[in-house]
Design goal:
By secondary structure, the chain is α/β, with parallel strands linked by helices. It has 8 helices and 7 strands; from the N terminus they run βαβαβαβαβαβαααβ.
């Protein structure tokens, strides 16, 4: 077990699977008190048990990231269990591909609500907790290469992740006076359950040739990412190593999008 996060309490939304679970396990291995905040409490508890069995400190909490009172309750549970909050990962998100001309208001609203509005709410509520503590703190948001370049079958998702980048910048400006940093990371193609579902969804709308394999073919480093590839950057952004970094979105995409 490492010690770079010793004594630090971290909330990870959507932490029960995929990238979030990878981050949770990685930070727990470095000594963090990890709070897995997920809509699926059963999966969150399973992940928590795995972390505790491995010698880490963890807590599962059921949180609906689009509901402010639910987000507040999750933060309170974390503080009650571990005494304070140090870092908040706005990681929960989803995608439901549709062809550009077929996108409905319902599809657009649902994706923007979870992927953009929830990041805004999470940033606000984490910041309020840090201000109450008087200790400063960190917010880390999960953006995407889709926030840097729009994909035709992921238009609302691309828009939502561009919004995450803007919220990250605005939050960094607004909260710097309180010693709160706000950063994001931007994954590319990551082998997770979300991508398996995306591939299936793309096939259903006749866009199967724009899925995982074809996107992975454009990666300079020659392979898709595993959740473990995200952990070192997440650790950097959650630890004191990044105290002089704010308002940034760090690409972890193997060289897919060069800007």
């Amino acid at each position: 077990m490492g010690s770079r996060m010793h004594g630090r309490t971290v909330i990870i939304t959507g932490g029960a699977s995929g990238i979030g679970l990878g981050i949770a396990k990685g930070l727990a291995a470095e000594g963090a008190n990890v709070v897995i905040a997920d809509l699926n409490l059963e999966m969150a508890q399973k992940a928590t048990d795995e972390i505790i069995d491995a010698g880490g400190h963890a807590l599962a909490t059921q949180v609906d990231v689009t509901n402010r009172s639910s987000v507040q309750a999750g933060i309170q549970q974390a503080v009650q269990a571990f005494g304070k909050l140090d870092c908040y990962f706005n990681n929960a998100g989803f995608n439901k591909p549709m062809k550009f001309l077929d996108v409905t208001e319902e599809n657009f609203d649902a994706i923007m609500r979870v992927n953009a509005l929830a990041v805004f709410i999470g940033t606000q509520e984490a910041a309020k907790q840090y201000i109450r503590q008087g200790s400063g703190g960190k917010v880390v948001n999960t953006a995407s290469i889709a926030g840097r370049t729009g994909f035709s079958s992921f238009a609302p998702y691309s828009a939502s992740k561009a919004a995450v980048i803007s919220i990250t910048q605005a939050g960094a400006r607004a909260l710097a006076e309180h010693h709160i940093t706000v950063n994001a990371f931007s994954p590319g193609v990551v082998e997770t359950p979300l991508w398996k579902k995306l591939d299936k969804d793309l096939e259903e709308i006749g866009e199967g040739d724009s899925g995982f394999d074809s996107m992975a073919a454009g990666i300079l480093l020659g392979r898709a990412a595993q959740p473990e590839d995200i952990v070192p950057t997440a650790l950097f952004l959650a630890s004191s190593d990044s105290d002089y970094v704010t308002g940034q979105t760090m690409a972890i995409d193997g060289g897919m999008i060069l800007v």
